[in-house]
Amino acid sequence: MNMSEVAARGLVLLGCGRMGSALLEGWLKQGLPPSSVHVIDPNPSARLRALAEEGLHLNADLPEDAAIALIAVKPQMMTDALPGLRRLADGRTLFVTVAAGISFAGYEAVLGENAPIVRAMPNTPAAVGRGITAIIGNGPSTPAQLDLADALLQAVGQTVLLDSESQMDAVVGLSGSGPAYVFNMIEALAAAGEAQGLTPEMSLHLAKATVAGAGALAEASPEGPGTLRENVTSPNGTTYEALKVLMDPQTGLGPLMRKAVAASADRSRELGRTDE
Ligand SMILES: NC(=O)C1=CN([C@@H]2O[C@H](COP(=O)(O)OP(=O)(O)OC[C@H]3O[C@@H](n4cnc5c(N)ncnc54)[C@H](OP(=O)(O)O)[C@@H]3O)[C@@H](O)[C@H]2O)C=CC1
Ligand SMILES: O=C(O)[C@@H]1CCC=N1
């Protein structure tokens, strides 16, 4: 199955909020015609309504033989929303879900144990084509179906394949939730600049450009982040003093980040067990 088959047979998108719409824009940019897309969402955005004018099917009947059903509702909505896709669970439609926490067993309980399902964990830089998504398929999914899910997610950035489903909660904690940690770092950096006397506008400008520039350098450089950090740090200079605070083994960023990632991963595990 390839993208032209998806265009011919159709793609169902269940839930088109922040993540669903980022994915949809990526597929449209890659040439998927709006008329191949069937969106189910109770409160469609203005953008979706405009796409419906171009042929996108909005809250209409499901196609008979969709190639893909992509699930992008909140885990808490799954019990209500997922049974609506049961009619597609005849083994021919590949289900791809981006929901945090919910395990293959949870989907199989509704869709049947023979439904091919791929779990994917993207992140919001997908909205600018710079996401990273980890994916893994269940037993009934074929290598060709995993490749197709990979291609779908590559429309919005990079992908990595996981070895086991149990790695997914750690991925949620690291790259799924991770953009929020970085945005919080920008906020904290800007507030700290203000505390040193800069205007809010100047401080935010400097903080955003510093994080974006450091990210781009970390990605482009052959050096690891440790060397890049050392390259900023003159012996007994200014950065050295700041890093004594940030790299404190008890109170620094290391233990704090371990705690934050663990809290997200634990919540992902919890969402897999409950619908709260
Ligand atoms: N945001 C992120 O950073 C990431 C999110 N995810 C996962 O993506 C999924 C969606 O998250 P996100 O996009 O942030 O959430 P949003 O709330 O932005 O999107 C969910 C969408 O689903 C709609 N919806 C609610 N009930 C139903 C229903 N019964 N049938 C169809 N659609 C429905 C919502 O409508 P309404 O708003 O009107 O309720 C909303 O438009 C989650 O499972 C999350 O775990 C994964 C990786 C990263
Ligand atoms: O906060 C959440 O539950 C979702 C999953 C990963 C990022 N956002």
TrEMBL record:
Known EC number: 1.5.1.2
Enzyme class at the top of the EC tree: oxidoreductase
Domain Pyrroline-5-carboxylate reductase dimerisation: 165-271
List of residues binding NADPH: 59
Subcellular location(s) per record: Cytoplasm
Chemical reaction(s) catalysed: L-proline + NADP(+) = (S)-1-pyrroline-5-carboxylate + NADPH + 2 H(+); L-proline + NAD(+) = (S)-1-pyrroline-5-carboxylate + NADH + 2 H(+)
GO CC field: cytoplasm
Pfam families: F420_oxidored (PF03807), P5CR_dimer (PF14748)
Positions bound to NADP(+): 14-19, 72-75
Domain Pyrroline-5-carboxylate reductase catalytic N-terminal stretches: 12-100
Pathway connected to this protein: Amino-acid biosynthesis; L-proline biosynthesis; L-proline from L-glutamate 5-semialdehyde: step 1/1
Keyword list, A-Z: Amino-acid biosynthesis, Cytoplasm, NADP, Oxidoreductase, Proline biosynthesis
Gene Ontology MF terms in the entry: pyrroline-5-carboxylate reductase activity
Main location: cytoplasm
GO biological process, one term: L-proline biosynthetic process
Physiological role: Catalyzes the reduction of 1-pyrroline-5-carboxylate (PCA) to L-proline.
NCBIfam families: proC
Family label: Belongs to the pyrroline-5-carboxylate reductase family.
Protein name: Pyrroline-5-carboxylate reductase
Native source species: Brevirhabdus pacifica
Gene giving rise to this polypeptide: proC
